[in-house]
């Protein structure tokens, strides 16, 4: 117990002994985590936006003209049974005409009857990346004359999502490395001023793990403190920014993910990065002194 | 106990031959002076004994550990059998006398109760009773070296290795320090003192091993004179 108490005591002592450096480490961790958090939350929001847009990206399967409403409605089982089809809604030619007239001037439709429209199915997919394949499969179903699908939209969504994923992973990787490097150098400065102490510890027979532990504890505490503070700041910033965006744009399609639904994810991510960067920063900082 | 057999050490970086077939041993309970001029190889011998470096060839046994083959993980345990003292004392400036000595016990995992019992005893032994709360810079050079000796002794090592311990002290303090080493030796601890101070060595009737050019040139009770 006294041994553990000593190690923790030394870890805490290190933090206060090098107050300015500790402050610098925590600040850097906060800054890096907030940038990381901002990128991640931006990704989450863009992902949600793309999901919303995907949901709106329907494909339409038109039924043969000579098929009656009952026969056309009977195709639903087969359409829903096709791979990648999430749902299919039958729209009769009369309903299609009503929808059309609702969107345009009724005067234009004078003298036109519903027979110019086809019965149709409005289909939503599980994965728009598979849109082309699903379109082909639907076209092989007897009774389906034509399938309209906006393949170019689907491709754009997928491209945007892939680019954002790659860019965010690279940015997060770079930031983790930067925080690790700065943390490690901060603790290295602390170890430099204690190199005599470390040399004496080695000379009297302290084990490497015993020498290393106070520095690891120091890094761990700084990392923990930095990640908790970054979490609180991130929470405040996100809420302030999202309410501002919602009030400034009167657009209905912009759906911002509430912080409460990602809170645990952000906290866990921040803690994991903060603690790992802190602890490994401590291990790395002292490595050179343990070689003797 | 130290046993060196045909030990050679060549530093890779400069290709310098520091030791060229050293043969000597120190038995348990002995008091030995290791003498030689600068560059003779004395410091290399100390570094080999403490495990800071490894020999290029030959055999070195220190307190039953084979120093040519010892694994890095075993070094701390081996070092606990030694008490090492340096010319520049190597005390921690912001720690009191008591804490400097207690520190050596703490870092090897001693219990607080044992530390409270052992540290005052050792400080009393080296003549620093009443100086516990002082900082190193409030002490004279001789007193600082006594703190270093107390720190070396506190974990009850089998052997004390002192590298030029009187290099920073005046002759009177140096003599007092040697008398302290003699007292420690009388209590059963092996003592190996590395020095180049002729008068000091001659004041004691001890075994003297003289080194020159990386080789033992004399070994006996009159070793220092033979070296001259």
What this model shows, in words?
With 292 residues, chain A is α+β, with helices and mostly antiparallel strands. Chain A folds into two domains: 2-53 and 155-290, no CATH class; 58-149, Alpha-Beta Plaits, CATH 3.30.70.3040. Helix content of chain A is 69%, strand content 8%. Chain A has ten helices and four strands. Chain A has a four-stranded antiparallel β-sheet with strand order 2-3-1-4. The longest helix of chain A is centred in the middle third of the chain and has 43 residues, at 151-193. The mean pLDDT of chain A is 82. Chain B is of the alpha/beta class and 228 residues long. Chain B has a domain at 1-80 and 193-228: Rossmann fold (3-Layer(aba) Sandwich). Chain B contains eight helices and ten strands. Chain B has helices at 42-50, 75-79, 97-106, 112-125, 141-153, 171-186, 198-202, 223-227; strands at residues 2-11, 16-26, 31-35, 57-62, 65-66, 82-86, 159-163, 190-195, 207-212, 215-220. Chain B has a six-stranded mixed β-sheet with strand order 6-7-8-3-9-10, with helices on both faces. In chain B, strands 2-1-4-5 form a four-stranded antiparallel β-sheet, covered by helices on one side. In chain B, strand 7, helix 6 (171-186) and strand 8 (190-195) form a beta-alpha-beta unit. Chain B starts with a strand and ends with a helix.
């Amino acid at each position: 117990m006294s041994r553990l108490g000593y190690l923790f005591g030394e870890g805490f002592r290190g933090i206060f002994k090098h107050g300015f450096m500790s402050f610098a480490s925590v600040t850097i961790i906060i800054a890096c985590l907030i940038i990381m958090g901002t990128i991640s939350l931006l990704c989450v929001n863009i992902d949600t936006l793309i999901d919303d847009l995907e949901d709106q990206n329907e494909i339409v399967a038109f039924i043969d003209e000579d098929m009656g409403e009952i026969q056309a409605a009977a195709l639903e089982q087969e359409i829903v049974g096709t791979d990648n089809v999430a749902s299919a809604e039958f729209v009769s030619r009369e309903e299609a005409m009503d929808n059309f007239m609702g969107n345009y001037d009724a005067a234009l439709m004078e003298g036109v009857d519903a027979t110019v429209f086809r019965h149709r199915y409005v289909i939503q997919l599980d994965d728009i990346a598979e849109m082309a394949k699903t379109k082909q499969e639907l076209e092989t179903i007897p009774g389906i004359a034509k399938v309209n699908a906006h393949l170019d939209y689907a491709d754009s969504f997928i491209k945007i999502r892939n680019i954002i994923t790659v860019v965010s992973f690279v940015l997060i990787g770079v930031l983790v490395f930067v925080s690790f490097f700065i943390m490690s150098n901060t603790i290295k400065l602390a170890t430099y001023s204690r190199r005599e102490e470390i040399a004496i510890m080695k000379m009297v027979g302290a084990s490497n793990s015993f020498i290393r532990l106070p520095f690891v504890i120091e890094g761990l505490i700084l990392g923990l403190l930095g990640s908790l503070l970054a979490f609180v700041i991130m929470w405040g910033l996100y809420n302030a920014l999202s309410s501002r965006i919602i009030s400034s744009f009167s657009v209905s399609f912009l759906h911002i993910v509430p912080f409460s639904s990602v809170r645990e994810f952000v906290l866990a991510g921040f803690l994991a990065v903060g603690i790992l960067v802190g602890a490994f920063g401590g291990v790395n900082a002292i490595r050179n002194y343990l070689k003797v | 106990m130290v046993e060196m057999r045909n030990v050679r050490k060549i530093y890779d970086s400069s290709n310098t031959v520091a030791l060229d077939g050293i043969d000597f041993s120190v038995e348990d309970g002995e008091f030995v002076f290791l003498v030689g001029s600068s560059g003779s190889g004395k410091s290399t011998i100390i570094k080999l004994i403490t495990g800071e470096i490894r020999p290029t060839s030959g055999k070195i046994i220190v307190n039953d550990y084979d120093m040519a083959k010892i694994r890095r993980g075993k070094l701390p345990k081996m070092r606990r059998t030694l008490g090492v003292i340096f010319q520049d004392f190597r005390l921690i400036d912001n720690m009191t006398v008591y804490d400097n000595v207690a520190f050596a016990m703490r870092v090897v995992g001693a219990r607080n109760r044992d530390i409270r019992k052992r540290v005052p005893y050792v400080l009393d032994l080296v003549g620093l009773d009443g100086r516990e709360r002082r900082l190193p810079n409030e002490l004279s050079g001789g007193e600082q070296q006594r703190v270093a000796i107390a720190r070396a002794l506190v974990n009850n090592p089998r052997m004390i290795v002192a590298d030029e311990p009187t290099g920073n002290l005046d002759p009177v303090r140096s003599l007092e320090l040697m008398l302290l080493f003699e007292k420690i030796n009388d209590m059963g601890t092996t003592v190996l003192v590395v020095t180049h101070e002729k008068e000091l060595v001659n004041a004691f009737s001890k075994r003297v091993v003289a080194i020159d050019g990386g080789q033992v040139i004399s070994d006996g009770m009159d070793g220092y004179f033979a070296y001259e």
